[in-house]
Automatic annotation (TrEMBL):
FMN binds at S10, S16, V17, S18. Quinone reductase that provides resistance to thiol-specific stress caused by electrophilic quinones. Also exhibits azoreductase activity. Catalyzes the reductive cleavage of the azo bond in aromatic azo compounds to the corresponding amines. Belongs to the azoreductase type 1 family. Residues 3-164 form the Flavodoxin-like fold domain. SUPFAM superfamilies: Flavoproteins (SSF52218). This is FMN dependent NADH:quinone oxidoreductase. It catalyses: 2 a quinone + NADH + H(+) = 2 a 1,4-benzosemiquinone + NAD(+); N,N-dimethyl-1,4-phenylenediamine + anthranilate + 2 NAD(+) = 2-(4-dimethylaminophenyl)diazenylbenzoate + 2 NADH + 2 H(+). Its cofactor is FMN. The lineage of its organism: Bacteria, Bacillati, Actinomycetota, Actinomycetes, Propionibacteriales. Its EC number is 1.6.5.-, 1.7.1.17. It holds the Pfam family Flavodoxin_2. Homodimer. It is an enzyme of class 1 (oxidoreductase).
Length: 221
């Protein structure tokens, strides 16, 4: 039996493109693994308090906690960190759905990643090296090469650096751009292009998930 860890980050539920892309990927994965388990962590609905990371780091390194600090209790923060790391390491594959907010990484994803990286062995011992991870990404504008804002997307390179380079995971992406076109009058002329981008991203998400699922089946055989 295989396990897929799905992590969503959008603060939207209805109408979220990153979630919809992840739905397509999950459906394709389930079609290959009908008996597989999907573990869910919804950072958009249930964000990790930002002070958890500070508490874990302070406790780990024996740093004093200011008397007037509202920092989370170390034992509770450590327990949550262990839970997050264990589900990440234990999963056979990871599906991470991330929107682009203000040209950068969603703050809740950053906190989640910071907690993962408190365990240095993830990188130094390659605990997740080679593990497949699929990113379903939604960008409100256009950031591809040749567009006026090419290079303004600071989230995707960061995710690639962390999961692809630092953790050496097998990273795949499905990206939908211009997702704000249907709701932004200034982008009305880009609605058709946004629909094409989203359709292509759904197809790519399904393809990646099916490929990963088949690889896991082959490995387990």
């Amino acid at each position: 039996m295989t396990t897929l860890l799905r992590v969503d980050a959008s603060i939207r539920v209805d109408g979220s493109v990153s979630r919809a892309l992840a739905d397509s990927a999950e459906a394709a994965w389930k079609s290959e693994h009908p008996d597989g388990v999907v573990v869910r962590r919804d950072l958009g609905r249930h964000p990790i308090p930002a002070d958890v990371w500070a508490s874990v780091i302070a406790g780990k390194h024996g740093l004093p906690t200011p008397e007037d600090s509202d920092r989370a209790d170390y034992a509770d923060a450590k327990a949550l960190t262990d839970e997050i790391v264990n589900e990440f390491v234990s999963a056979d594959a990871v599906l991470l759905a991330v929107p682009l907010y203000n040209w950068g990484i969603d703050q809740h994803v950053k906190t989640w990643i910071d907690l993962l990286l408190t365990v240095g062995e993830l990188q130094t011992e390659g605990l997740v090296a080679g593990k497949p991870i699929i990113l379903t990404l939604a960008r409100g504008g256009g950031y591809s090469e040749g567009t006026p804002k090419h290079g303004w997307d600071h989230a995707t390179p960061y995710l690639e650096r962390i999961f692809g380079d630092a953790l050496q995971m097998d990273l795949r992406k499905a990206v939908a751009e211009l997702t704000l076109a249907p709701v932004n009058p200034a982008m009305e002329s880009l609605i058709d292009a946004s629909k094409v981008s989203e359709e292509e991203a759904h197809a790519t998400a399904k393809e990646h998930a099916a490929t990963v699922a088949r690889q896991l089946t082959s490995t387990a055989a």
